[in-house]
Amino acid sequence: MLSVKCCCSRAVFLTLILVPFTLGLPLPAAAQEFVSGSPGVATQRAVIDFSELALQEALAPATARPPKVIHPPLPGPWGRTLPGQLPGPKDVQASATTPSVVAPRLAPFSPAPSSSFAALGDNNTSIPPDTHGAVGPNHLMVTLNTQARIQDRTGVALSTVSLDTFWAPLSNPNAFDPKVLYDPFAGRWMFTAMADAQSPASSVLIGVSQTDDPTGTWNLYRIDADAGDTLWADYPSMGFNKDWIVVQVNMFTFPGNAFNRSNIYVFNKADLYAGGTGLFTLLQDTSGMGFTQVPAITYDNTLATMYLVEIWTTSQLRLSTITGAVGSETLTLGVAFPSSSPDAWAFVPPIVNFAPQRGSAIGIMTNDARIQNVVYRNGSLWTTHTVFLPAAAPTRSAVQWWQITPAGAVLQRGRVDDAGASTFYAFPSLAVNKFDDMLIGYSSFSVTQFASGNYSFRNAADPANTLQADVVLNVGEGTYIKDFGFVRVRWGDYSNTVVDPVNDADMWTIQEYAVDDVGPGASDDRWGTWWGRVVIATADLAVTKSGSSNLATVGNDLTYTITVRNNGPDSADNVMVMDTLPAGVTFVSATPSQGTCNASSGTVMCNLLTINNGANATVTLIVTPTATNPTLSNTASVTGNVIDGVPGNDSATAVTIVENPVPALTTLNPNTAFVGGPGFTLTVTGTNFL
Question: How far is the C-alpha of 641 from the C-alpha of 629, rounded, in Å?
Answer without folding.
Answer: 36
